[in-house]
Amino acid sequence: MVAIIKYNAGNIRSVAFALERLQVSFTITDNPEEIQKADKIIFPGVGEANTTMCYLKEKKLDALIKNLKQPVLGICLGMQLLCAYSEENDTRCIGVFDEQVKKFQPQGHEKVPHMGWNSILPTHEWVDRNVADKFVYFVHSYFVPVNSHTSAITEYIQPFSAAMKKDNFYAVQFHPEKSAAVGEKILCSFLKQS
Amino acid sequence: MLTKRIIPCLDIKDGRTVKGVNFVNIRDAGDPVELGARYAEQGADELVFLDITATTDNRKTFVELVREIARHVNIPFTVGGGISSLADVAPLLEAGADKVSINSAAVRTPQLIDDLAKAFGSQFVVLAIDARKINNQWIVHTHGGSNPTNKKLFSWAREGQNRGAGEILFTSMDHDGTRQGFAIDPLSKLHELLQIPVIASGGAGNKEHFLHAFALGKADAALAASLFHFGELSIPELKSYLKTSGVSIRT
Fold it and tell me: Which of B11, B51, B88, B176 is catalytic?
């Protein structure tokens, strides 16, 4: 059973439908016991970092997430909140990845948010190598720089972490639930982890 | 590299697509869910579904439809038509819409843009602007282009961005339906003026028009309806042409 952590994130329904299309059974829950007993956990996210962290703290989900031992996948804001700190409204985050989330600073006339389909280059085996140079869907104004946990790289204004991995924590900046067949492949790669 | 987006737009009335779509082997040419999924398979980058009746009565039907689209379509989609308040938007988000487009209501109550951006994030808010050139000025129109307003395209687009819109969907009413190409000059001016993506709409008649919208108009995305629906131009054919012409495109 996959648990999708229920909180005020925008894309919970889309993640649920993506799992439904893959015929994976799941539950959407904020119940700590249910989350802890799930085989895999998806931590989705669309929204603003500070408000979301306040909400997670209030529900004591921040500590719960940090201590999970099964495979956890953070998506978009979910990935950023797994880092130590975000420049978005000066937010201290959960801190699984000891990284700082930064705001895109356009060098020329690049638009922010980075919105649309961009290619990824996997650098770690958990991200299926078959998706090299394939396109996934991004929507974000903040990014995690390339670091020792980066497992796929995308370039926009500068190279940044499109995916990361540390121990049982996996994370993607893009939206696999909205990235057509390539996204499904990457969700499947995560679901195969143990 | 970030790619330019191709966006088919489907008009919905009472839960059905208004114009038939010319796909081979389609079971139900009026079913927006099946058509959306088909466009996604063909390589559309996003979809737009516009509820063109948008009365209170059929609102529930539309929300149900949005849920079914989200269930079956694995690419992002925007929904619009008749959205006038925060209360209209929450059920659409909950049903799985990725973005909403607002038009007349934003002109009437610009604060709606701020409120939606604050509640759901800028990425969720597409400001649709219909404009027509009158006495050398691009004048914003509402209610499907029937009512001229005192707003001008460029200042309104900038205001929309400042209030928190995540994208501008610009339709030139002078070009819409003509099949003579997109309005290149205002598009490139919007590109210069704005820091958020611009979607070109109105006037697509052939694949060269898309190339012009991207290469000359600097649009981030281009939208078309009947050209795709009538099967005159397929998305794979368009994308392969654009790629060969040097446009960054997802194939």
Answer: B11
Segment B12-41, tens digit of pLDDT: 888 888 765 665 665 666 889 999 999 999
Residue pair B107/B140 in contact (Cβ under 8 Å)? The answer is yes
Record: contact A17-B191, CB cut-off 8 A: no
- Chain B CA closest to residue A138: B2
For the cut 90, the answer to whether the pLDDT of residue A152 exceeds it is yes
pLDDT at residue B143, rounded to an integer: 85
Q: Which two tokens stand for residue A95?
A: 């801190």
Q: What is the pLDDT of residues B102-161, one digit of tens each?
A: 999 999 999 999 999 988 888 899 999 999 999 999 999 998 888 999 999 999 999 999
User: How far is B155 from B244, CA to CA, in rounded Å?
Assistant: 36
The helix/strand/coil state of A1 is coil
Structure tokens of B136? 């050398």
Is A89 in the B-facing interface, judged by CB distances under 8 Å?
Answer: no
Annotated active-site residue B11? The verdict is yes
The greatest distance separating any two alpha carbons of chain B, rounded to the nearest whole angstrom, comes to 48
Q: Please answer whether residues A9 and A47 qualify as being in contact, where contact means their C-beta atoms are separated by less than 8 angstroms.
A: yes
Collect all residues of chain B within an 8 Å Cβ-Cβ radius of residue A13: 67, 70, 94-96
Inter-chain CB proximity A118 and B2 less than 8 Å: yes
- Distance from the A183 Cα atom to the nearest Cα atom in chain B, whole angstroms: 9
Distance CA A48, CA B123 (A): 11
Tell me whether 0.90 is exceeded by the ipTM: yes
Model confidence at A7, in pLDDT bands (50, 70, 90)? confident
Q: What is the DSSP string of A35-75?
A: HHH-SEEEE---S-HHHHHHHHHHTTHHHHHHT--S-EEEE
Q: Name the residue of chain A whose CA is nearest to B97's CA.
A: A14
Architecture of the domain whose range is B5-244: Alpha-Beta Barrel (3.20)
Q: For A2-191, which CATH class?
A: alpha beta
Cα torsion for A59, A178, B112, A55, to the nearest 10°?
10
Give the integer Cα–Cα distance in Å for B237 and B230: 14
Q: Give the SS3 label for residue B8.
A: strand
Amino acid at B11: D
Has A177 been annotated as catalytic?
A: yes
Residues A135, A179 contacting (CB under 8 angstroms)? yes
Rounded average pLDDT over A164-169: 98
